[in-house]
Amino acid sequence: MYGPRPIIVLSQNVKREQGRKVQLSNITAAKAIADVIRTCLGPRAMLKMLMDPMGGIVMTNDGNAVLREITVQHPAAKSMIEISRTQDEEVGDGTTSVIILAGEMLGVAEPFIEQGVHPSVIITAYRQALDDLLTYMRDQISQPVNINDREAMLRVISSCLNTKFVHQWGRLACEMALQAVQTVCVESNGRREIDIKRYAKVEKIPGGSIDESVVLKGLMINKDVVHAKMRRRIEKPRIVLLDCALEYKKGESQTNVEVTGEHDFARLLQLEEEYIAQICADILRVKPDLVITEKGISDLAQHYLIKGGASAIRRVRKTDNLRIERACGATIVNRTEELKEEDVGTRAGLFEVKMFGDEYFTFITECDEPKACTILLRGASKDILNEVDRNLNDAMNVARNVMIDPRLVPGGGACEMAISTFLQTQARSVAGLHQGPYLAASRAIEVIPGTLAQNCGGNVIRTLTALRAKHAAGEHRWGVNGETGQIVDMNELGIWEPMAVKAQTYKTAIETAILLLRIDDIVSGSKRSSGQAKPQAQAAPTDESKAQADD
């Protein structure tokens, strides 16, 4: 008697992989992604030149920027790219380290998978190692920093920028990043809020040199006044911000007006003029020098504003308007009749319009305690400006992280080597099958100092052996000098990193490795080609269509 016939559940077009083969495939894909940006770590990092489908060029060594431009097929590789984006959004730095560490964490798990160790055993050991290293890092390695000590803050930002393209202008970039973050920092109810994305805008103007870049004590927007007769320079301006149009309102829906006499048409035009005159009178009542609106300004409104001695700027972005509000102390008003004296911004010291190249830019500067700012970047070309922008963004995020969580750990791979030494000691107390993966995790963390030594042309094995000896003797601040490949005391070299960045790097890398090890089945379905696609269900024929068919 024959056995039961096999039941085919999945479609024939679907490709399925199961078990150990999937885990090994995921590990290979993750290692391949890590190898792509391994050379982007450290001060001797190499740049990657990437070309997008539109022909644009990106030159960078920022892990997130590189991986964002790469198109990959494997689902595990896509997960690796996603963690770089997560790291960038969360702490803004460590995007290269997180990929290298995640790839190494998966790489050291490969022998255990091949020996038949269940992934759950490896996952449990990794989780325990993560908990232990985070506790050890906070209690033993990290040290507090005084955020009011300007030199200490600049040293921390400098250790971030040393690995970037902009390190040639290191002091200038560090001071710009720190000044921008301190400007947008707001303390309320004992809580410190630093919103760089919304209130520290980077404006890039090709031309000049990077030395001419500056953090404005106020704002800059790419706009000019709406009329040539309006003033382009005003000291201590009274600024009114509006979110309404200074033109006659059109009907929401189509409106028909029946005009029976010539006086009626003249009256309609008169009503429009009276409405414009009224809203301009409401604005001029508070004696503004500068009117900024997010909507349009009609020619008639311009005429009334010029008569009232006010300059006007129209169609400003909402985000720019919010920044101007924070910088000059004004309040954005939606209806002109509700405009009051306290809505007028008086904290700006100077309004002027300047010309760069063939474009006009409006500057609202010399503000009294601005809580928003513009970082004006000058440089030779757009590619250079884009890279400087990315570097500066990383530096500002580092400054923000330190101001929110003021604890530092030694850089140059010293923190990683100290953690690795601690985990190897701690592994003796781990019992059973978990000990092997726990030890492997401690070895994987050494990939950061190893890569630093490799990228500056040093002898990796000799450097790591000497570094292990230092850490075994209890000297936790020794790491690799990324410029020379020699081992040095990071305290003397002045390389410190925010603990928040390191903690996020370890959490993201180890949790991603755990996630990919947990996958044991990949089902990928191929879509039908357009020729084989079934026709869509058509609508039932109407009487008209039947009649046309009969004809």
Share in helix: 40-55%
Profile the largest sheet. Answer: 4 strands, antiparallel
Low confidence ranges: 529-547
DSSP helix count? 19
Folded structure, characterized:
46% of the residues lie in helices and 16% in strands. The protein has 19 helices and 22 strands. Strand 12, helix 10 and strand 13 form a beta-alpha-beta unit. Residues 529-547 have low confidence and may be disordered.
Q: Features of this protein?
A:
46% helix, 19 helices, 551 residues, four-stranded antiparallel sheet, alpha+beta, four-stranded parallel sheet
Please write out the topology.
Layout: E1 14-18, H1 20-36, E2 48-51, E3 57-60, H2 63-69, H3 75-90, H4 95-114, H5 119-141, E4 143-144, H6 150-161, H7 170-184, E5 185-188, E6 191-194, H8 196-199, E7 200-206, E8 214-215, E9 219-221, E10 233-235, E11 239-242, H9 262-284, E12 290-293, H10 299-307, E13 311-313, H11 318-328, E14 332-333, E15 350-356, E16 359-365, E17 373-379, H12 382-404, E18 407-410, H13 414-426, H14 435-444, H15 447-455, H16 460-472, E19 478-480, E20 487-489, H17 490-493, E21 496-498, H18 499-517, E22 521-525, H19 543-550
Helix pairs in contact: 1-3, 1-4, 2-3, 3-4, 3-18, 4-14, 4-18, 5-13, 5-14, 5-18, 6-7, 6-12, 7-12, 9-10, 13-14, 15-16
